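Ubiquitinyl hydrolase 1
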Amino acid sequence: MTFDRGAPDGAPEDAESPRLVNVDQVPSVRPAAPVPVVPPQGDRYEERRSDLRNVPSDAYDSSDTELGAQLGPVPESQVHFPPPVGLHRQARQAPQARPVPLDPYYRANDRRYDHEGEREPREPRERLEPREPREPRERRVFMGDEFVKENLPPLMENELEFYIKDANKYSYTNSVRSEPKTVGNFRFRLLIFPGGTQTTGGQQVSAFVEAFPLEGLDPRWCFHAVKYQITLVNWLNYRNSVTKTDTWSFSKDGIDRGWHDMVRVSELVPETGWVGPECTLYFRASCYVRSADQLNLSNEYNCKKETGFTGLKNHGATCYMNGLLQSLFHVGDFRRIVYSIEGDEESQEDGHEDDEGKPPQLIQALQNVFYKLQTSDQAVNCRELMKSFGWDTTDAFTQHDAQELNRILCDRLEERMKNTPSDGSIKRLFEGEMENYIECIDVDYSSRRNETFYDIQLNIKSERGQELQTIVESLHDFTAEETLEGDNAYEAEGHGKQRAKKGIRFLRFPPVLNLQLKRFHFDLEKMDMVKLNSRFEFPRKLDLSQFAPEGGKYDLFAVVVHNGDVNSGHYYAHIQPDPERGWFKFDDETVTPCSEYAAIEDNYGGNDLAVWNYFDRSPTELRNAAPATRSRSHNAYMLMYIREDLRSEILRPPDPKEVNPRMVERCDRDVMVQEQKRREKVEQQTKIKIKLVFESNLCSMSGFWDHAQIPWEQSYKMGRDHLVKDFIEQLSVDAQVDQNHIALFVLQYRTSPRQIRFGFMQPNSLFKSYIPQYGGQPHFDVQDPSLTVLMILSRGYNLQTLKWEREEESMADNLLMWEDDKATMLVVKYFCVETRRIVTLGCYYMSNSELLIKMVEGGWVGERLQPFMDKNEVAVIDPSECTWDCWEEFSEREMQSRGVKRGVKHEQLYSGDILIWQVTRPAEQEVPSEEGIAPVYPIHTVADLCANQVLCAAAALVAVYNFCNSWSFVPGPLRKHAPVAAASAAGVMMAPAAFADEIGDAAKKLGDASYAFAKEVDWNNGIFLQAPGKFQPLKALKAIDKMIDMGAAADPKLLKAAAEAHHKAIGSISGPNGVTSRADWDAVNAALGRVVASVPKAKVMDVYNSVKDITDPGVPAYMKSLVNGADAEAAYKGFLEFKDVVEKNQVTAASAPASVPTGDKIGVAAKALSDASYPFLKEVDWLSDVYLKPLPDTTAPKVMKAIDKMIVMGSQMDGNLLKAAAAAHHKAIGSIDAKGVTSAADYEAVNAAIGRIVASVPKATVMDVYNSMAAVVDGSVPTNMFSKVNPLDAVAAAKGFYTFKDVVEAAQR
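Tokens:
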């Protein structure tokens, strides 16, 4: 990774730092030319090469310095006369500073600037000859000898000093370096130019801190955010010293940093105090280093290639887990144990979540992670392992404790290995033993208790408050004896109170010793947890022989570090898998080599000396002042030591193929699956799926078809950056059609007007230009992105075979030359007035200047219409003998007439627009009515048919309200289960009841007794539409009210399960009687039994009694006569037994009422809808028996499919809103008048409730219901219903409904 210079003390950069800055405050590096320019703060600076023209060729040579001599001169083509290595690298990246002429140097605020405007840079001056020193300024009054240089405090540990004798003998660009100083493992020195650098033209003394890396550091070393300070000390008054401070990330490419302008060379005379005896300059410099060396990595860095190791992905806050897993993984013996464990047979097939969403076993998830760490080139995903812990997304962003996780892992593995050949392996590796003892001092009595441990928790601060410095000190504290005496004396059995010694002795240490440093400590004064950052040293080799018999010697293997405080932080690990290869840092996905110092000493913790400007303090103040320090927030938290004599055996990496071949097969299979998913994801990001639609596909559709229903022939995958013409070339080969005869049109949205139409695809355009930015195209799913593309061929090709059918193919139109402003492609339909059927004829392209009637007169319409006439789908006509009307299908609700004798351009038609042709029908001609059917509203044109579709909405409104007002609305085949049907429609509300499987067992017995009877019932019989006795609509409504009340009290989860059982049962219906399968019959009965048992008995009996009141006593006998009597008796007997089991498990209390939303947009829209439609509502004859009539031209199976869609929709509704809707219906039924009309207020409440439950269901599910009902409701039904009310009121209701629908859709999830 690369590092940028941080601001001092971690503060943010000053965003308002001017380019014209005080040279007293600007850190810089030596430039490559003697141009008096002030560089920007905190960055190195390099002059433009054009400013070097006047510099003598021998002014400076990089070989004059030590490092420069090693690297040799820089080629003249790059820069003239470069300074020493590192001083000008990357300078081109710095912003150009404003040139400022350097005036004579003044102290403090006497520095003079021209703030009025920019000056032109001066030409570099010649080297100044020595001149007479200036008289000291009057303001420089020395305060005796108190502040002389000799009274400065001694050097701090992070500070160096540098004396430069005969400073006036140095010419400019000549440098001298100090002896190095090491802080941590950052070695630095001072680089001084007593005669100045080329930047200042030899006018200013220049000083720089130069990194001098220790031997053995990686060449990519970087010390991040080092704060440094340079002081040129005034010998006579150190308070006048020049001190400058900045922060910089030192690296090979940014090896030095400092300032060109410490003090003017002309002032280097004894009278000013800048030089001492023998014209000596005196410098002090210090550095505060936040952390040890890191690596400056490029974007091409590859962990596996560079180190042979792989990182782990961080899934939010899982760094603690990553550090621990890496430490355990590199213990080869532990890895072998994990590999050796056999999983369950079923789980061996797939280590991932199964179809039921069950998380994988922990052991298999851990095996997958370890195997991928050993074999993968990419950072490994740990989500599967986290799921095996039972964690969710929230846990991934919660910082857990690494030591706690270690114990969980070991405990789970031990439990999994019980009674297997691997049993005890974890204990042999990690388990140690200690003895808790109490030994009496004055009598011969002792008590001992042995216990095992997997880790030792060592105090950083003892219980007495003493800070412990090393592991040995902490172990002594851990085993320290405590004397029990006085009131705290030990009660020795048989000896009474006795003085005793209490303590812990180690009996044995494990081969792998885990030490947890107790850095998180409860502070009794703060009454809160705090992190202890005090210094705590741990050795590379640990001798434990003094703490246990045969304690042995241990080598440090891993250091898990915590960087942060008690509330937040980051974990990473330093591990030494192989002593010969050194240490590595494992920081989530990144694995890098690191120095031994970075792994060990840098993580001791403690305080570091900060940079301190003490030159403004008196000697007295300095004697009493303490140096500034900063606490080191990164420090060791867990240590792992391995017994020295067992190290090679324990760390030896296992071969997974030898340890567990079955595991390898499973893991390899999983890797292949994951790789395939990854490739698919990459492909999804780089390619787009093309659903290719042929013209013949459109011709298979009829009516006002939805573009979402367009069938497609085949799919292709095309690169998003590929040209459309590349796809045309491919289609040309696949279809064996000349590419000049192909044009492509993509399905897309138009914004003005809002339409979904096909638009022309330019051959030289890219596919990605047609991909919506926010997934706003039809057929476009973000999860599975695709484009629907229509292929049009030149006229003369057969729609089905795609073969040329005319004599000369050269006569085919060249569609490759298509221009949208000259030609138009129209989708053409035909409406037959006699059959009221709309068929699709295909696609017709024409010049924009051609008349629309040409497609009729040219014979194209008649040619495409002939197959439909042959199949009697439309009435037979002679196109040449007819008068034609033409309409544009402008929207789903609007038809616009188009002039047949006008051109495309004049009619404002564009490619993709839909035209519908029809034969002109005289207005006086009426549609005959069938006997027994009320007169219908006449349909003369396709516009009339469209208007009737609008009226369907009003009919739907009637149907919804009718659900609450008519017993006969319950669908025929489900009439016997009307109570349950109403319950399913009424609510999904309460907490689940805990039923045993007793109801399920009883349902199977009921199935045994009743399935023969069920198969004999003709479920498609229209008898179920008849009233079960005398027609009493208001009384039936009371029964429905009881059903709604029962449904509102049912358990929501059980209701949903019942709905899903019905959905599945409908799917298995077969045979002439419409019978479901035996398994689904049992499942439905069980589901219904559980629903009924979740409702108090009183509510169930209310339904039973209310239905009994409207059922003629002769109905059961008559129904029995339609089937085998013995089977019916057996079914009834089985039902009574089933009823007893359900009653046994029945609840006694109903749930709390639902909360009703108020003030929402749907509620406001419902009021507007109610105001617009209530007059229409009052005109409807709710007591009519028309609702008992069967729907024309449909069948029971078709109706059943529509009902199935309703059941699915109901199962997806929000439980509370559904319960609130049930309550609204219950209240509305209570306010109905003698005509079956509820009050306006209750009507509004019902509309609001229905709107809310619809909004709680995905739009696709609602549209499934709408489309399925549209398929079974003939156009004559809304026409007939429309004829029974005031048409103006019906239209007003429909308009209000459409407005309401838009509000609901906007709120839909």
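Confidence is low (pLDDT under 50) at residues 1-143, 346-357, 924-936, 950-996.
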